[in-house]
From TrEMBL:
<protein>
    <submittedName>
        <fullName>Pentapeptide repeat-containing protein</fullName>
    </submittedName>
</protein>
<dbReference type="InterPro" id="IPR051082">
    <property type="entry name" value="Pentapeptide-BTB/POZ_domain"/>
</dbReference>
<dbReference type="InterPro" id="IPR001646">
    <property type="entry name" value="5peptide_repeat"/>
</dbReference>
<dbReference type="Pfam" id="PF00805">
    <property type="entry name" value="Pentapeptide"/>
</dbReference>
């Protein structure tokens, strides 16, 4: 009957195929198992702490509640694997294939997921605090490969350059996360907490950010065309140079926001709060500003050509050099 000691002896002797074996509860901590075949194996509650599983084949393996903290799974094949409630604290999954893997409620604290393929992976409720996902692929593909990150914790995670096209990030905790240059086209970020996150240069075209918390976030030069930001909290946000054409910002909170040189053509800012916001040199051509609060806002040299501002509150606003809706330049 196979046990941990026999498995290690056989592997040492050159045997790598342990496909579909029952290895539940095996203690293989710190074991060198590079290139091993554990496809469809049952590793429920196994101990693989600090194990070397580089390029291991774990396709459809059962790794529920498995202890993998500090394990090296770089370039491992984990397609369709079940990692529900697994402990992967500090594990290395660089370049790993995790397509369609179940990572719900998994502990991925400080994990290395650089260049990992996470399309259609289920990360609902997973803890990704401090995780590095630079260059990871979580994009939607033909409405089939959609990563689910609902309720996941990605606080201070590094997602620089990651592809999250169409990803489900509703209500996700991304406080202080680094999302610079990330692709979030069409992603669902409704109700997400992105306060103090770095989204500079991020692609958020057609993203859903309804009621999201972006307070004090950095969105400099971000692309937000046709994005939905209804009732979003954007207080003190940096949107300098951002592209917000056709964006929906109804009832958005933009008090003290920096919108210098932002492009807001045809944007809907009705009932938005832009009190003390800086809109110097911003382009608001054809923007809709019905009942918008622009009290003490800085609109110097802004372009308001054909903008609807008849019911906007401009008390104390700075308008020097501003192009007014009728084409006149304010003095």
């Amino acid at each position: 009957m196979l046990n941990a000691a026999i498995l290690l002896r056989e592997y040492e002797a050159g045997e790598t195929n342990f496909q579909a074996e029952n290895l539940a509860g095996f203690n293989l901590a710190k074991a060198d198992l590079i290139g091993i075949n554990f496809a469809q194996a049952n590793l429920h509650s196994a101990v693989l702490v600090l194990a070397y599983l580089n390029r291991a084949k774990l396709t459809k393996a059962n790794l529920t509640a498995t202890k993998l903290s500090g394990a090296n799974l770089s370039q491992a094949d984990l397609v369709g694997a079940t990692l529900r409630d697994a402990d992967l604290h500090g594990a290395i999954l660089q370049g790993a294939d995790l397509r369609s893997a179940d990572l719900t409620l998994a502990n991925l604290l400080d994990v290395n997921l650089i260049d990992a393929d996470l399309r259609h992976a289920d990360l609902a409720g997973a803890n990704l605090t401090g995780a590095c996902l630079r260059g990871a692929n979580l994009r939607e593909e033909n409405r089939h490969y959609v990563a689910n990150l609902r309720g996941a914790v990605l606080r201070k995670a590094d997602l620089r350059g990651a592809n999250l096209t169409g990803a489900d990030l509703a209500r996700v905790d991304l406080r202080g996360a680094n999302l610079s240059e990330v692709t979030l086209r069409g992603a669902d970020l409704s109700g997400a907490d992105l306060s103090e996150a770095n989204l500079s240069g991020a692609l958020l075209t057609e993203a859903n950010l309804m009621q999201a918390n972006l307070r004090a976030a950095n969105l400099q030069n971000a692309k937000l065309e046709r994005a939905v930001l209804t009732e979003a909290d954007l207080a003190s946000v940096n949107l300098q140079g951002a592209l917000l054409s056709d964006a929906k910002l109804t009832k958005a909170h933009l008090a003290r926001a920096n919108l210098t040189q932002a492009r807001l053509g045809r944007a809907d800012l009705s009932r938005a709060n832009l009190r003390e916001a800086v809109l110097q040199e911003a382009n608001l051509t054809d923007a809709y500003l019905a009942r918008t609060n622009l009290t003490n806002a800085d609109l110097r040299d802004a372009i308001l050509t054909r903008a609807e501002i008849s019911s906007a509150n401009l008390t104390g606003a700075l308008l020097q050099g501003c192009t007014l809706p009728d084409g006149r330049i304010s003095d």
